[in-house]
Every structure is written in structure tokens, then in C-alpha cells.
Write a structure and sequence with these properties.
Length: about 500
């Protein structure tokens, strides 16, 4: 819906509130930008895809602007124990939220007799406040606003207008617990940090709580996860591509099915991401086996990599090359491709996570540097756009977050884990799920992480016991913290 102009009493402040937080479940990774997965390989195995709607406040920080917009959410009551069962809030993130998927949270909901509700992130999917995603209209897109969205929705859903009405309850509240993976994982941790009275605890899976300007550790983890042979093959492939790109760029782009990526940085980012997703989502052998074989047999590495990119990354995985095209990112239309622009806006204003090439031993082209990222932000959104990384970490605490009753989990092969909290502290345990194909959100998704196995089945993980041990810890923390909530107002 298009919003009317805001009221304009004296001293109406129009702050551009883009400083910090994040919102949960997406792992919607239209790669290179998204942390989460958004591709044809994503699970369509939804337990429910029936949309419900909530009237959300546009600007939670203005006492004068009372505009509202329609925000989509989903509700699953199949396992709910009336009337005192807990409510599990599954946070959606940087992509359209098209339903409640069948991951390990389903198992947890059955175990605890919980209802599951999931709120779409503002601006993404069907929850855009405006008919245009111009830079000016994106001023209300921030993690801070998203956190308040969650708080407002939580209060609405519990109140007499919804759950209490359904249960014929006149007073009292159910216990709430918040879940998220990746950016939504960070939102989950931040929600418990900022609104501890509204949730008994949170699971922050692969939660990127530390905003990072130049995220060189991302590339370094890819090299470590690849192992010596695959790493060497990838680095040699990268060098060969750069040489051929300089000699005949049109031919090389065409070989990879990416002729429209006329900016060298865009093209090399695309190629880097094609390798990343193999490790991030638990399919390392899909990349490494054919590439190492090609290197050992003296075959053309560029041809071998192009085959992988076209057949797996663009084919099976389903990534759209346009995701990497800055011309596409400048499109302000509200449509199915909007998520690319929206997440880049959050990248360029709040969290950065610039996946730059390290000075030495890099897995990606040196064209993907800090200047490339800053130029992209300026080209796509205009002058004055800059990621306020220090402000974000100041507000949330980064890896030094001082919260309580938050479980942090990370996969050993996930390049995003270095932006998460990987060490335990009082009342905030942290676990690493270690195995050959344990990537992003393994605790909730199983292996591989994409495509999703029903119930987050972990039997295809190279070490299922490692996953089960962490899951048992999660169950014990949820059980304890829910029990401690029962005699409180939460």
C-alpha cells in the first residue's frame, strides 16, 4: 500500500535512522549480498504458507509520524499445547518470507508443544511500506526498526486481538522464545538484548552480531574449508580467469553465462560467490571434486569451473546473474527482485561485511576491494551513503554483546562464523558444530543446509553426532529458560 504523506507538526524530526540491528530467518543469500539463501534450491516444503497481516508502525522513533503499513506473518498451531504452550517466534530476514519451513524448529515445536509464528522483515517480500524503493523511501529500513517491529508484533499477537482471544484468555501471557539464522540470528540475539522482558531467551544460529568493514576473514575461511588441493585449484582458476578477462573479457563473461556483468568487480564477485556457496551450505564436494580432478588431469581449469558455475550455481542452486549487476541494483521497483537492492542498502548503511580480498593468499580477485564496495554503494544509492559499522557495534556490542539467555551456534565450515560470537560467556553459551559439511545454520537445517532436509535431518552430515550433541544442548537451554519464565510476566 502507498502511504500518505506524514503529518508535519512543529519540530517534526526526519532522522535517517540507519544504525544497527538485524532480523531473522532468512539465510537468504542472493549471494554476494545476502547471508541467507534465496534461490530455486531453497526449500518450498512449508508447513504453512497461508499469509496473515498485521498493521505495523512505519517509524517507531517518531512521536509525530503515525503512518502504518501491512506486514505479513504466518502462524502454525499444529503442535501448540493450549493454553499454556510457549510461542516460538521465527524471525525472517533479508528476503521474502513465504511461509514457515520444515526445519529442526518443527522438531522443537513438537517437543515443547509450541506455536510457531513468523514475521516478514519490513520492506522485503509483501511487506513494503512504499510503491518505490528509492533511496529516500528506504530511510526506515534498518535493524533498529526491525527489532521494534518484532516487539510490536509480539505484543499484538499475545494480546486480546489474537492469541488470547483464540484461547479465551482474559489475562496472563505465554512464554516466548525467539529463533533466527544468520542476519535473523543476529536479530534474535539483539531482540533478547534489547527486549529481555518480551522473550525467555533466544537461539542465535550463525548470528552475524559483529558488523565488519573489511571482512577478510570470510575469504580466509573459504581457503581453510576448501583444504590444500581444492584451495590451490581455486586460486589457479582465479588467476587464469583474470588473465583471460584482461585479454578478451567478452568471451570469458560469455563462457560463464554472465555477459551482462560489464563491471569487472561485479563479474569477479559473482565467480567468488559461486565457490563460497559450496562451503557455506554444505556441498563442498560438488565444487572441489571436479575442480581438483581437472587440475590433476591437466584439463582447462577455467572450462571446468565454468561448467560448475553454469550447471550448479546458476542451474541447480538457481542464482540469477542479475543479482550481481549494479544496473539491476539501481532498480527502485517493488517486485520479486527487490531483495537484492534492499539488503545492499543495509550493507551500505549499517553492517558492511565487505568481502574484500586479503592482501595475501586470497581466494578471490583483488578487484573485489574496499573501493569496489564503496563505489557500488555510491553508484546504487547516491552520495552520502556509508556503512556506520562502529555505530552498529557500539549499539549492540558486536562480539562483546552483554546479553543473557542467548544460545550462539555456528558451523565449522561457515565463512560467516567469524562475525559471530564463538566463545561462551556467562548465560550466553556458544557452540561450534564441527564436520566436513557443517555450514550456515547447520543446527536448524541439518546437512546439506541447501537444499533443506525435512525436519533439518542431520544424517547426511559427515558427523551427525556432532550436530545431535549441539541440538541436545539447545533443548536443555530452552527447557531451563522456559521453566524460569513461568513465574514471571514474560
Amino acid at each position: 500500500m502507498k502511504l500518505p504523506p506524514p503529518p508535519t507538526p512543529l519540530l517534526l524530526f526526519s532522522f535517517f535512522l540507519v544504525t544497527t540491528t538485524l532480523f531473522t530467518t532468512s539465510l537468504a543469500f542472493t549471494p554476494r549480498t545476502f547471508l541467507q539463501l534465496q534461490s530455486s534450491a531453497a526449500s518450498t516444503n512449508y508447513l504453512t504458507d497461508k499469509p496473515l497481516w498485521f498493521r505495523q508502525t512505519l517509524d517507531h522513533f517518531s512521536p509525530y509520524d503515525h503512518r502504518k503499513f501491512d506486514q505479513r506473518y504466518y502462524e502454525l498451531l499444529d503442535y501448540f499445547r493450549p493454553s499454556d504452550g510457549p510461542i516460538f517466534l521465527k524471525i525472517c530476514g533479508e528476503s521474502a518470507c513465504n511461509g514457515i519451513s520444515n526445519d529442526y524448529l518443527t522438531v522443537l515445536a513438537k517437543k515443547f508443544g509450541a506455536a510457531v509464528v513468523s514475521l516478514e522483515h519490513r520492506y522485503y517480500g509483501k511487506s513494503s511500506p512504499f510503491k518505490s524503493h528509492s533511496t529516500e523511501n528506504l530511510k526506515y529500513l534498518s535493524s533498529k526498526q526491525a527489532l521494534f517491529d518484532l516487539a510490536a508484533f509480539r505484543q499484538y499477537y499475545q494480546a486480546s486481538e489474537s492469541l488470547n482471544l483464540k484461547l479465551n484468555k482474559t489475562k496472563g501471557e505465554n512464554s516466548w522464545f525467539v529463533f533466527g539464522v544468520s542476519y535473523p540470528g543476529a536479530l534474535s540475539a539483539w531482540f533478547r538484548l534489547k527486549f529481555p522482558h518480551l522473550t525467555c531467551g533466544s537461539l542465535a544460529s550463525s548470528a552475524v552480531v559483529e558488523a565488519v568493514f573489511n571482512y577478510t576473514e570470510f575469504d580466509q575461511q573459504i581457503g581453510e574449508s576448501a583444504g590444500p588441493e581444492c584451495k590451490a585449484a581455486l586460486q589457479e582458476t582465479n588467476r587464469l580467469v583474470e588473465q583471460r578477462l584482461a585479454a578478451n573479457g567478452k568471451a570469458v563473461r560469455g563462457l560463464f553465462g554472465a555477459s551482462q556483468l560489464v563491471i569487472d568487480g561485479d563479474f569477479m564477485y559473482f565467480l567468488a560467490d559461486a565457490a563460497v556457496i559450496a562451503f557455506q551450505y554444505g556441498n563442498p564436494d560438488r565444487l572441489c571434486s571436479p575442480l581438483v580432478q581437472a587440475k590433476n588431469s591437466g584439463e582447462d581449469l577455467v572450462e571446468a569451473y565454468a561448467k560448475y558455475v553454469k550447471e550448479y550455481y546458476l542451474g541447480t542452486f538457481g542464482v540469477d546473474v542479475e543479482t550481481y549487476n549494479q544496473k539491476h541494483l539501481k532498480n527502485t521497483a517493488v517486485d520479486d527482485g527487490s531483495s537484492d537492492r534492499l539488503w545492499w542498502f543495509q550493507v551500505c548503511t549499517e553492517v558492511a561485511y565487505f568481502q574484500v580480498a586479503p592482501a595475501n593468499d586470497s581466494m578471490r580477485s583483488s578487484n573485489v576491494d574496499t573501493k569496489y564496495h564503496l563505489d557500488l554503494c555510491k553508484n546504487v544509492f547516491g552520495e552520502g551513503i556509508y556503512p556506520e559499522v562502529d555505530a552498529t557495534n557500539l549499539y549492540y556490542g558486536g562480539k562483546k554483546i552483554k546479553g543473557s539467555k542467548i544460545v550462539f551456534t555456528n558451523g565449522s565450515q561457515d565463512p560467516w562464523r567469524h562475525a559471530s560470537k564463538q566463545t561462551s560467556s556467562p548465560d550466553m553459551p556458544s557452540y561450534i558444530v564441527s564436520c566436513h559439511n557443517c555450514g550456515h545454520g547447520t543446527d536448524l537445517r541439518g546437512c546439506p543446509q541447501v537444499p533443506l532436509s525435512p525436519g533439518g535431518n542431520a544424517q547426511n552430515c559427515s558427523n551427525p553426532d556432532a550436530v545431535q550433541k549441539v541440538r541436545q544442548q539447545i533443548v536443555e537451554h530452552i527447557d531451563l529458560w522456559l521453566s524460569e519464565c513461568q513465574d514471571t510476566d514474560v
